[in-house]
Structures are given as structure tokens and as C-alpha cells.
Task: inverse folding
């Protein structure tokens, strides 16, 4: 009989990413006694001020970094999880044609082994049973999201190998690696149709069928976590990131009763499993948790 708690590590690029990708699942597992640790690769210090109701941020990169650290602490408290910073600097989202070069010293330009070493150490110290992160596209083409995928896969593979990163703690092989699905046209279309059927306006109207939406590949869903009871915790965590999230904006445009009825899940893709499991799953710890203990 397992006596130690199950452990879940969620690796994200910036503060606020954890609250928009898998947040309700994390809150659910934390409430059930799972030890949940969010690892945030960068400080989000080059993030734009996206909430039109928020006053101007002064102090440049350092000023934004301090604000976002406080926001992250509030979001973690809302979800009931722990959080750890890897300490890298936000790369920013380059815009223009041609795209400008990334700033020197940023996360996305850090050599892979240098960027992965602190995550290997965090894995070996925390010893997670499950790691969640982004798919190879990053979920969207922000350089830090793509880098987070690369670093997560490297650390997942290397942390169990005693010959690699020898100065970063005792080896630990995490049994399962998942990609979280923050974007899904299937989910979006289902909620869109449910809103129209209820006689409500859909915030997805401009997206459904758009070229931009079609260019984002629909990835395989292997695992759905029923977590609608924790949507309020997710929403509170989102609001905690006040520089990034407009409380009157897109994230909150869907009535929660309609969302919970139409798509009460968060979706994941099982990328690697070192334990036997049967797809589809309804638990990230399937194959790890002893049967009959949920």
C-alpha cells in the first residue's frame, strides 16, 4: 500500500501560464492530497501589460518582475499548490517582419543543457510521479513555450540517468510525461455551439473556421480530467495575474454553467509512460495509483 503522497509537477514558461493550462486539474489533485508543484521557467518580466484596467507599470523589466512574482504567489495560493522559479529571463514575444533578434541572455537563447540543469535538479529533489508541460509547438509559437517543451523533455529523460547532470542530485525517473492542451478547436467548437444554442453570443465566433485557428494542429487527447468543480479556483488564479488577465475579458466570457455542462474536462496527451496504462485515461496517475484507491 502506497503511504507517500502522489506528486505532480507542472512545468510552465511564465507566471499566468499555469492558470490557463491545467489549473483546475492541479487544484483538484491538490484538494485530493496530491503534492502539486508548479515550476515556472522565467519571471515573465518582458510580458506586456494586457489588462486595460491595470495602471501603468513602472521600473521596466525589474518592476514587472516584482509584480509578477507577487501575482504568481497569489495564483498558487488560489490553486492550493506550491511553486518554484527556475530563474531564467523572459525572452519576450518578437513581432515584426522580419522578426527582431531575441534579447541576449534570455531563456530561449540559453544552451539546452544549461537551461535543463536546474529543472533536472528540481525533478530529483521533488521526485514527481507525473510531469505536465507543452507539446513540441509550445501550444503557440512563443519562443519561451517552445523552449519549455525542449527543456522539459530533456530533463524528464535525463533526471533518471545517473551518468547525466551528476552534480544535480540523486537520479529519479518520473513515470509519466504529459502535454497539456491549452488550445483545442474541438473544445472551442463544442462550447461555441452550446452558447449559440442557449441564445448567447460566443466569444469564439471570429475564431471558428479562421485561417489562424486552422494553422494550429489538433493534437491527440488521451486523458481527460473531470474538474469542473475546480473551475472557480482556476478563475481566481487567473484573476490573480492582474497585469495579464482582464477580468472582463475573453477568459471569463463563457458562462461557467454552460462550460461545465459542455466540456467539464481538461485535456492531456500522454507523451511517455514507463508504467502500463490503458487509453483513454481519466486520471494522470493511472498505472501509478493502486487500483481502488481513488
Result:
Amino acid at each position: 500500500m502506497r503511504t507517500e503522497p502522489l506528486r505532480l509537477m507542472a512545468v510552465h514558461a511564465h507566471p499566468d501560464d499555469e492558470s490557463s493550462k491545467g489549473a483546475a486539474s492541479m487544484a483538484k489533485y491538490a484538494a485530493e492530497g496530491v503534492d502539486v508543484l508548479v515550476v515556472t521557467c522565467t519571471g515573465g518580466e518582458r510580458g506586456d501589460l494586457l489588462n486595460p484596467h491595470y495602471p501603468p507599470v513602472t521600473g521596466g523589466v525589474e518592476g514587472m518582475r516584482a509584480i509578477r512574482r507577487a501575482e504568481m504567489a497569489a495564483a498558487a495560493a488560489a490553486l492550493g499548490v506550491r511553486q518554484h522559479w527556475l530563474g531564467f529571463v523572459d525572452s519576450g514575444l518578437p513581432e515584426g517582419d522580419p522578426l527582431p533578434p531575441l534579447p541576449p541572455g534570455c531563456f530561449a537563447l540559453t544552451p539546452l543543457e544549461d537551461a535543463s540543469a536546474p529543472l533536472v535538479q528540481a525533478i530529483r529533489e521533488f521526485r514527481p510521479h507525473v510531469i505536465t508541460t507543452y507539446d513540441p509547438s509550445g501550444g503557440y509559437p512563443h519562443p519561451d513555450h517552445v523552449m519549455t517543451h525542449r527543456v522539459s523533455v530533456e530533463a524528464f529523460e535525463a533526471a533518471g540517468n545517473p551518468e547525466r547532470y551528476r552534480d544535480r542530485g540523486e537520479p529519479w525517473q518520473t513515470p509519466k510525461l504529459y502535454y497539456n492542451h491549452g488550445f483545442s478547436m474541438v473544445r472551442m467548437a463544442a462550447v461555441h455551439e452550446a452558447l449559440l444554442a442557449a441564445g448567447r453570443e460566443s466569444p469564439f465566433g471570429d475564431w471558428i473556421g479562421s485561417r489562424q485557428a486552422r494553422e494550429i494542429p489538433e493534437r491527440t487527447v488521451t486523458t481527460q480530467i473531470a474538474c469542473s468543480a475546480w473551475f472557480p479556483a482556476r478563475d481566481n488564479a487567473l484573476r490573480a495575474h492582474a497585469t495579464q488577465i482582464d477580468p472582463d475579458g475573453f477568459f471569463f466570457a463563457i458562462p461557467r454553467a454552460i462550460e461545465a455542462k459542455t466540456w467539464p474536462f481538461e485535456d492531456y496527451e500522454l507523451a511517455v509512460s514507463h508504467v502500463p496504462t490503458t487509453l483513454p485515461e481519466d486520471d494522470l496517475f493511472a498505472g501509478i495509483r493502486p487500483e481502488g484507491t481513488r
